[in-house]
Design goal:
Layout (H helix, E strand, L loop, with lengths): L1 E4 L4 H12 L4 E5 L5 H10 L10 E4 L5 H7 L5 E4 L11 H21 L4 E5 L14 E2 L13 H18 L4 E6 L1 E3 L9 H8 L4 E2 L6 E3 H13 L5 E5 L6 H12 L6 E2 L2 H18 L7 H6 L5 E2 L2 H7 L6 H9 L3
Parallel strand pairs: 1-2, 1-4, 2-3, 4-5, 5-7, 6-13, 7-11, 8-10, 9-12
Length: about 325
């Protein structure tokens, strides 16, 4: 029996479809049945409606140990996909509670229930910080806590430390560090914010780079890594490192809307994140732009996918064609 946390999210929902298609028995954690609608849409997307009823749904919360103990009964492998994603510094407590404390609970349950193997979905945000003279980030790049990081990055890095603790205590683990994940479903969350921004007429662009990957690639790599005799390893999951300008233009062209036409320079963003902080303070609204995110928008660093490609002999989906097909659903 396989347990999937975060089963009602983008990665988790696509993952359970694939697992069920491979005849695996799946337990899936949920907190609110309202989220089932999005998952059912994913199953319809794969023409796998009949498999939805095969899911063994368990109402639980990764921050609530008693509910997890019930979920772990009869389980042999765990995919930990649950996470809280926010780049607003005001959400620091929630980020640490869900991402750090929640992951520590999962690791402890894995040890207590003698789980065979754990796959943890981390993020490229938890990868290291290259020297100023370097442009490549890989699994071995050292994380520098003295550098500027978002609260999300810090929480995911801390969560990885809990997974490595479990590894030291005898738990078999594998960690994946995906870039920005695109995929069908959840049009109002995550990577879909790129698409929403362009549809609303966002005029700004930068030439910074970011890692990008299709959700199908993330899921395929996770399942294959769990089947292999791979233990105590982490893998960067990034298909390409395009510029924000390229992706925003591709979205605009496909949707037949106006392309971003104002270059947001470093100095412009330096003013913008401070102004956004001021607005959030007086209007008590969530931050749209922070110092860390404004810095990331101009980063020219690239994420190296050599390790996963060579380990699994894996070939990633070509992003341009994938996004054009995905955008039809919008």
């Amino acid at each position: 029996m396989i347990l999937v946390t975060g089963a009602t999210g983008l990665v988790g929902s696509h993952l359970i479809v694939k697992l069920l298609q491979e005849k695996e028995e799946v337990k899936a954690i949920f907190r609110d049945k309202k989220s089932f609608t999005a998952v059912e849409n994913i199953f319809r997307f794969y023409n796998a409606d009949n498999l939805f009823e095969k899911i063994n749904w368990i109402k639980a919360d990764i921050t609530d140990i008693p509910s997890l103990e019930e979920a772990f009964k009869g389980v042999t492998k765990v995919y930990h996909c649950a996470a809280f994603i926010s780049f607003d510094p005001k959400d620091e407590d929630e980020l640490m509670k869900v991402n750090l404390e929640g992951t520590a609970n999962i690791v402890n349950c894995c040890l207590d229930f003698n789980i065979e193997k754990l796959c943890y979905v981390s993020s490229v945000a938890a990868l290291g910080d290259p020297l100023d003279t370097q442009i490549i980030i890989n699994e071995e790049t050292e994380y520098n806590p003295e550098k500027l990081h978002s609260e999300y990055s810090i929480s995911k890095y801390a969560a990885e430390m809990e997974v490595w603790r479990g590894f030291q205590e005898g738990l078999k683990v594998v960690i994946v560090n995906p870039g920005v994940i695109f995929g069908y479903g959840f049009p109002y969350n995550g990577s879909s914010t790129f698409i929403k921004a362009i549809k609303k007429g966002n005029p700004f662009y930068t030439k910074g780079k970011f890692g990008i990957i299709a959700v199908e690639d993330v899921v395929n790599c996770m399942i294959t890594l769990m089947k292999h005799n791979i233990n105590g390893e982490r893998f960067t999951l990034v298909a390409e490192n395009p510029t924000y300008e390229k992706i925003l233009n591709l979205v605009a062209e496909t949707l037949k809307v106006k392309k971003p036409f104002i270059y947001a320079s470093k100095s412009f963003l330096s003013f913008a994140w401070r102004f956004d902080w001021f607005l959030s303070l007086i209007m008590r609204k969530k931050r749209i732009l922070t110092k860390a995110t404004s810095k990331a928008l101009h980063s020219t660093k690239e994420f190296d996918n050599t390790k996963i490609k060579e380990t699994l002999n894996y070939h990633f989906i070509e992003i341009d064609d994938y996004l054009k097909k995905l955008l039809k659903s919008f």
